[in-house]
Design brief:
The chain is an alpha/beta fold. It has 12 helices and 16 strands. β13 and β14 form a beta hairpin.
Length: 459
């Protein structure tokens, strides 16, 4: 059930990198759309005052998205600031005073997960977590199943599940949501969206850059924890879920949880891990690091619709392009065209950098009646100025009480259940050259039938 709109937004980590690059631009965009008119209270331990926070916000907007003078003036009028240590009760008493009569504050924890418990306990002790309050937490939500369960216990000790919003900003991207819309707003996909017609599904999330100075963070995280267990699992769930009976948040999230429950835990035979050459030279990275910068996994779904259809997920850094793409490869039909090199039909969804829906079909070559080839029927959409950013969408939804785009407790724990076995096993890490498609170890089954589809991005 949708909740009343929040009457204040509190964001912890107001002087941090996430706030600088994403939160301030999103807040300005919300103001421009008329979606934000409540106090915005930044909390941090920086020795700052409100004037310095406003200056930080202005600098953020000038460098990330563009400063709109009128919108920034309105944002400045909404901004408040509380400076103090998260371990100090006085900080939270000052926050309580700044909240004034607000009864439905949304507390956004844009801070390391290790601080979640401390902040939540202090919010409760200061009377800032009443029945109308909600909490918004950033990923990573734990590092394995046990830590995720512990975090859930901490949050549920103060907030009930309906008031906990676990952000995966990837779900805020319009093209990701469009996967569901394509399936359930059109009649024809259902006729072939099953094991009778689909041979395999593959999802690639490629980045053409390295760790960009975040070596210390990445060496404690790796590709599986950073994007596989959350972003790519969400894409897989959107592709594999059953039609929900209603579009309310619980009905949609129920179907996503059913997908994860049908997936077998990963074994070492279901995964390839790689590390690009030169990663160990990055600042903050251990000289003998075994952390993966590339991973490819195979998922098996034990459900009526998908039994026998493998899902292949691949993500990595320092690959040839930056692109996220889904390829659904169809089974070969019986054919009377002997001698033709006919390929499997496919459906291709590109999530970024632009949005593409393409259908690959066999057609007869124009110059030769005895030859054929694959052509694509393509629909493209390039992002337009003014389109809603992912963080703007998820923060707006959290403040309005719509939980559809947020991970529920059971979803998070099911996702960790799937990857936990390979996180705890010592699977080998294969080196790969930068700007290639990852390692190519022999004797592996983590390759889709017909091979991986390598996205190409043209300028």
């Amino acid at each position: 059930m949708k909740q009343p709109h929040s009457d204040a937004l509190v964001f912890f980590g107001a002087t941090g990198d996430l706030a600088y690059k994403k939160i301030f631009p999103s807040l300005q965009a919300m103001i421009k759309r008329g979606h934000l008119n409540i106090p915005v209270i930044g909390v941090a331990k920086a020795g700052w005052d409100l004037a310095q926070l406003r200056a930080r916000a202005k600098d953020s907007l000038e460098k990330h998205g563009g400063l709109d003078p009128a919108a920034f003036e309105r944002l400045s009028g909404l901004l408040r600031y509380v400076d103090g240590d998260y371990s100090d009760a006085a900080t939270f008493q000052a926050l309580k005073k700044t909240l004034g009569n607000a009864e439905r504050p949304a507390h956004y924890l844009a801070i390391p997960p290790l601080l979640f418990g401390k902040v939540v306990e202090q919010l409760a002790a200061a009377g800032c977590a009443g029945p109308g309050a909600r909490v918004i937490v950033e990923k990573p939500f734990g590092t394995d199943l046990t830590s995720a369960q512990n975090l859930n216990r901490i949050l549920l000790g103060t907030f009930d599940e309906s008031r906990i919003f676990r952000i995966d900003h990837y779900l805020g991207k319009r093209p990701v949501h469009n996967l569901q819309f394509y399936r359930f707003a059109n009649a024809f996909p259902e006729s072939y969206w099953n094991r009778d017609h689909i041979e395999s599904v593959q999802i690639t999330m490629a980045e053409d850059f390295g760790v960009q100075g975040r070596g210390k963070f990445y060496d404690q995280t790796g590709t599986i924890r950073d994007v596989m267990q959350n972003h790519l699992f969400q894409l897989a769930a959107n592709l594999a879920m059953e039609p929900p009976p209603r579009l309310d948040s619980e009905s949609v999230r129920d179907e996503k949880v059913k997908v994860l429950k049908a997936i077998h835990p990963l074994t070492p035979a279901d995964i390839i891990r790689g590390q690009f050459h030169g990663y160990r030279d990055e600042p903050g990275v251990a000289p003998d690091s075994q952390v993966e910068t590339f991973a490819a996994i195979r998922l098996e779904l034990d459900s009526w619709r998908w039994k026998g259809v493998p899902f292949y997920l691949r993500a990595g850094k320092n690959l040839p392009v930056t692109c996220t793409e889904v390829l659904i490869r169809m089974r070969q039909p019986p054919t009377m065209y002997e001698g033709f090199d006919l390929k499997s039909n496919y459906l291709r969804f590109r999530i970024s950098p632009q949005v593409t829906i393409a259908i690959g079909v066999n057609v007869m070559a124009l110059s030769d009646n005895a030859a054929g080839g694959v052509n694509e029927m393509i629909a493209n959409h390039h992002p337009e100025t003014g389109e809603m950013d992912a963080y703007e969408r998820v923060l707006g939804d959290a403040m309005s009480g719509d939980a559809t785009l947020f991970a529920r407790e059971d979803y998070v724990e099911e996702a960790w259940r799937i990857v936990d076995p390979v996180l705890k096993s010592e699977t080998p890490v294969f080196e790969y050259a930068p700007k290639t498609w990852g390692p190519s170890p022999t004797g592996t089954d983590v390759v889709p039938p017909g091979g991986w589809w390598n996205p190409e991005v043209t300028p």
